[in-house]
Amino acid sequence: MTQPLQALRDGSHLAGVDSHPLTTPELAKAIGMKPDSIRVRLCRTGSFYGLRPGKLPNGRLIWPADSVERLLAQVEKASRPRPPKRKAQGGGDD
Which pTM was predicted? Predict the structure, then answer.
């Protein structure tokens, strides 16, 4: 498991994070990434894994306070095993 994902799962991302909007460096520190990695993903895709920041008058980005929790929910959802596909029944000419 990568280090950023491990930080999300063990709860260490919550150390020192209040429930206020986050700057890009704060978000990066909370999830164990570099701020530039977040900015690059945002510029290339228009979001950071579904998160869209607001923009302050000075041009800086501000991320929703629940960003870390939303990313964690995505990681947990993606890591759940999928149930096996069921075969279609009926409809055959016997």
Answer: 0.66
